[in-house]
Amino acid sequence: MHSQLLINGIVVGAGYGLVALSFGLICSTAGFFHLAHSAVYTAAAYTAFVLVAELSIPAPLAISATILGAIAFGAAIEFFIYRPLHRMGSGPTVLLLSSLGVLVVVQNVVSMACGDSTQTLRSQAVTEGHTVLGARITTVQVETLAAGVLLTVLLSVWLRWSGSGKLLRAVACDEDLSTLVGVRTNRVILLAFAIGSGICALAATLSAYDTDLTPMMGFRALLAGIVAAIVGGLSSPLGAFLGGLFVGLVQNYAAWWLPGQWQDTTVFAILILFLLVRPQGFFGKPLRKAAL
Amino acid sequence: MPKKHRIAAAGALAVALALVFCFANCSKQPAAETGPIKVGVILPLTGDAAVYGKAIKNGIELALAEQSGDQRARASLIYEDDQGQAATAVSVARRLINIEKVPVIIGGAQSSTAEAIIPICATSRVVLVSPTATKPSLTRMGAYFFRLWPSDDYDGKVMAETAYNKLGLRRVSILYINVAYGVGITEVFEREFQRLGGTVLTKDGYNQAATDFRTFLTKIQAVNPEAIYLPGYVAEVAQILKQAKELGIKARFLGVNSLYDPKLIEIAGTAAEGAVFTYPTFDTASQDPAIARFVTAYKARYGSGPDAFAAQGYDSLRVLLRVLGGGAVGAEQIRQALYSLGRFDGPGGFFTFDEHGNVQKQLRLLTVKGGTFTPLN
Amino acid sequence: MEYLLHILILVCMFTALAASLDLLAGHGGFLSLAHAAFYGLGAYTSALIASSQWAVGSGQSFVIGVVAGMAVAAAVSFVVSLPSLRLHDDYFVIATFGFQMILFSIFNNWMDLTRGPLGIPGIPQPVIFGWKVDSHLEFLLLSALFASFAYFVVYLLTSSPFGRVLHAIREDEVFAQSLGKNTLRFKVTAFAVSAALAAMAGSLYAHYITYIDPTSFTVMESILVISMVIIGGAGSLWGPLVGAVVLVTLPEALRFVGLPSSVAANLRQIIYGALLVVMMMARPKGLVGKYGFGR
Questions:
Q1: How many distinct structural domains can be found in chain A?
Q2: CA–CA distance from B260 to each of A32, B244, B309, C52 (Å)?
Q3: Contact call for C294 and A112, based on CB within 8 A
Q4: Is residue A215 part of a domain?
């Protein structure tokens, strides 16, 4: 039983980790909480659904198209909404609120276009999972875990050694200073949105294959993703992914030890605890004190 | 505050208030004696419960479309969205009652929203017909309330007795949705099942719109029950069935009557096989011509098969049209006509109302066999 | 007519909520997402007191409920504010969001106390020292009284030396500290007053609707109140009132517009979402405000 519990936690956590990874990349670079990230998530999952289930396009092609679409969508949100606001001198709070507006709009457009009932893009019959160490795990779950590990490594390497990755870290560290030394910060932020949205689309598609689609799916996924990113450290891909695993494990162990309805509560308790004790997360750099 | 802003503030206030007052007054002309009777409809059309509200709405619209021209002209429908929230339900109920002056409302689809608007309907003397609210105490709250779905008392009891007597189950786990419906029916089932001599091994609630149930199921697997009772709605229960199969759980699944929905089989596939549900007489495979006609018409109009919510919506408007067709106009007449309805046949099963407005309806049992809902022998 | 009175009563309740949040958000610069939780604390405290024997016996269950609700909210506010106020900007927002979710799940899951999702029905209409508030008009009067009280408290505080320190913290906290002000004390006090006033509105809500369940106190309700403050204009005298009027009447006005019924509900939400974005672009300081949440 306990190996199953462990696997449940890790698999759910890998999904959170993917969202946290992509969210953390955007949040640390752009410097605010991009809640409309969950709109990208929902929109991507439904794009995959339309392509796979309604238009019968082969899955690999459909998923690639979905990821490209999400990249364009994420970049468009930054370009048409956040950038003008940013230029006007709006702070993170205003950007957070406007991202909420975007989220409400997209969620309702999806609900109008595809309905509120659960949709599925799976075509195979439901079968028992593979047995690993006495626990069951399905193919999609293995894929999610693999995608999580792979992307964490890729992203870490890219951020650390590539030229564009270094620029991204520079902007994340200090936007004004980067501008001063000639970095085109707007482009770098746009890049972060593009990459983050692409990863987010992959996470959404995997989750759609695992637990199907509803218009509210993005918001729930992002809540866990945000907590994971804060726990692990917003600016570190490795931290965000491990944060996801941690949140997944805590959530599942909480469901095991406590009455089930308190499951979500524990996640927010972790959030508070981390904000209190270590707001920069496990792997993050210490936060700046209030700017003088 | 600079003067410019003060003017802006005053302007915004004035415009907003003027808008509401204007609209309120514009639509205030009293309904002519011969005109159509306004029927208010309050459903959760956005939010977590939107999927059920929209299904009910589909059923209502089908019922209206099926009427002949002059019958249809007898009722005009006004839809409002309560977002599944008690406070919004109160706002829209007030609007329907005071501005639109409806004598009757179809609404309060969830027990929580029903609970909030029943007192308002009772004091304003407006008939409230709930297609789906199940909380037992609701019908004791006001004399103008009718419901078309059997109360939790009945559903939970039927399943407890079936599980114990008919299926011979003694050790059961419960996994319920943490909203009024799930909590209410769990209480009844637990009480009845234990009274009969059965044991409830574990009891866990999950939040609406949750998608990951694996640890709840692992927890249940650890106590190895003979069956798992699942009071909830289709969206989550279909996921539970799917994930249970993936985890290799072999226990029997018991459900409630809101699960009668083609979606359940679409999502859960073979994982739904063998699950047992209570359900009103509504059954898409039925030979009953009234039901067969409803199912065909629904498929032709919406492209997919109806679920239990659609059937409830369909029946709630049809029953109203019947009493309106009988000449009832004011709320008082509609209420009396509903009490003395006699037997009413619809795809949601035949029924009458008792003196509290509770539906009297037979629940039957069904199981999933070969990918379709079939009656349980 | 009851409908119009109902709208006005809602406007009053939300004015009280928005004004109390504005003390913290507009004047102090701390945007709390936990306001609905304090609103709920007031509502639940009042509902529970109204159903307890001794309070009903005393005949003053409404008054006791309001006062107790405010006290409970103020007490809980310390638990929320002491940790949250160490954080800045969006980290503060996220921390209060976490507290909002925790308090909501307590409303939703502590069955023995709150009856969870089943809610508490049958809350009586208020009686205040013999004045039985049973008509809509009287209720409007009472709500207006409550809203004015909230406004008065906020006005009094913000136009006093206390308010000036609060403004200084909003503009530059380190500077305020360097003047020797114990900024934490000011922030915690503002938070407590804000929470207590929200709870007062909550008590009123419980006695007005007569039925409460957790769905009225979700984070979406917090966001609604924040939107009121920001759309109206944060940190200004009339901002919260304007915001409450606009955001309460707008959805109601949209009900009268003949949108096609199949999409009306979603369209209303879309308009609301789009409006939020457009407002941020067109008037980032709100309709009548002076303070924008800038960098």
A1: 1
A2: 45, 19, 9, 42
A3: no
A4: yes
